[in-house]
Amino acid sequence: MSIKGKAYIAGIYEHPTRLAKDISLAQIHAQCAKGALEDAGLTKDDVDGYFCAGDAPGLGPMSMVEYMGLKPRHVDSTDTGGSSYVLHVGHAAEAIAAGKCKVALITLAGRPRAEGMATGTVPRSRGGTPTPDEPFEFPYGPTVVNMYAMCAMRHMYEYGTTSEQLAWIKVAASHHAQYNPHALLKDVVTVEEVVNSPMISDPLHRLDCCVITDGGGAIVVVAPEIAAKLKRPKVKLLGASEFVKTQMGGKVDLTYSGARFTGAAAFAEAGVKPADIKYASIYDSFTITVLMQLEDLGFCEKGKGGAFVADGNLISGTGKLPFNTDGGGLCSNHPGNRGGLTKVLEAVRQLRGEAHPKVQVANCNLAVAHGTGGSLGLRHGSATIILERE
Amino acid sequence: MAEAKERKLPAPAISQETEAYWDAAGKGKLLVRKCKSCGQAHHYPRTICPFCFSDDTEWVEASGKGTIYSFSVMRRAPVPYAMAYVTLAEGPRMVTNIVDCDFDALKCEQAVKLVFKPTDGGPPLAMFTPV
Asked: Do A153 and B75 touch (CB under 8 A)?
């Protein structure tokens, strides 16, 4: 059984805020849900499936189900960090294909800026009963940035990847962000500006890192018979895959991500190849995240990511593979430190022809959205979806 | 030269499963868990082998020799430090720090040896320094 053609993305919404001092976490979730349902032309009472991850307040989905007055007959609060919402699209399609729901709502929200969270540079213990890995990691000071940085360091060692090549990823994102009125960082930057920005954790500079923003978003996934009745352009799910990559009992290899497995599986299910893809939403917590995922998804050979991203190859209109045309997490938005949902949103905008005209890809009929959640250097969840404009 | 200053290390949260590891650390020894069924050592230590799922596992003392698999100097910290994975001579790669060295001279595949650094009220942590 496959989910190919069994579900459509009918509604999307991205909260315009990037600093949510005066609104609550539940409020952002609900505002995003309302926006996505209105975009689809559906109402709250149409929702019979609800999906959220660990950013939702309360135990699993229950507090938000109550807050929004939902009556779901299917819920799923799988949490694989920032990749959760890409994974949720696949799970929603499975539930729809199995007849467990017809209108699935996925929400995300977060307020790390308003809460003054030191997102990337301070080691964090999760509290409560320690995870089995915690005593063997936390005391050493793993942060978000230094664990991703170790992936970059090893990739540079094995493949000769350079800081200038990584910088091109940020440069491309900034070219796109200049057209997004909601982007946190709208200024176009140069390779020189990236490599001359302060070193945070070798070899990642400040401008190799994504933004920290408040906000959120929502996605509505529906059954084919629902999509047929709606007025919005139809975006069909062709393939979906998920994976959890770990340290493998001490056999860790930092040069590849779970995208190696999810990309192959999602492309196989969709029956398309990376070369067919017109637009790619690629998780961009850091520049190295993008480079490794592009290799692992099959857009270029392993180790050749540096050459692939250089010289503007990811810039819409000039490059061969337009990516993250909303400015991505590197420049626009990384709500709640979880960037997977916004990856799906820009892919849908591109397929609908509703991206900003300056970055809209011509005849965009096939797109990929990929998420990485958790820590690339410790353990992470990967999720890939392939979407088609019908 | 960006040299490592001493920084305060939090005590590890010890579970029943790994008390022996931390008792050994207190005596200056690094233990790894080895499977008697498949013969492979793993890290972090578990009673059930993550490779073959046998529960016939035992502690063995590591030689303390290893090489840097990857590292990153966390510059934006009150006291900068070098996060690393070290490949132990016994096989597994472990999360650790590289200490007592010139951070700017560190390289992947560099040979390192075991040292222990005290924590705040707990057993010491296994770390490594260039040979």
From this structure: no
| pLDDT recorded at residue A275 | 98
**Is A27 exposed, middle or buried (CB count within 10 Å of its CB: 0-12, 13-18, 19+)?**
middle
pLDDT at A121: 80
CA atoms within 13 A on the CB side of A65: 19
Taking 70 as the pLDDT cut, the residues of chain A under it are 126
Instruction: Please name the residues between 25 and 44 in chain B that touch chain A, using a CB distance below 8 Å.
Output: 40-44
Asked whether residue B1 is assigned to any structural domain, the reply reads: no
Chain-centroid distance of CA A53 in Å reads 13
Q: What's the ipTM?
A: 0.96
pLDDT of B100 > 70? The answer is: yes
Classify strands A103-110 and A49-51 as parallel, antiparallel or unpaired.
parallel
Domain count, chain B: 1
Q: How confident is the model at residue B1 (pLDDT cuts 50, 70, 90)?
A: very low
Domains of chain A (ranges; CATH) run 8-114+209-389 (3.40.47.10)
Locate all alpha helices (DSSP H) within A271-312, ordered by sequence.
Answer: 287-297, 305-309
Other residues' Cβ atoms within 10 Å of the Cβ of residue A340 = 32
Contact pairs from chain A to chain B, CB under 8 Å? 130
B67 touches chain A (CB under 8 A): no
B3 domain-assigned: no
pLDDT of residue B5: 60
Burial class from Cβ neighbours inside 10 Å (0-12, 13-18, 19+) for residue A108 reads buried
Query: Token digits for A182?
Result: 């909601």
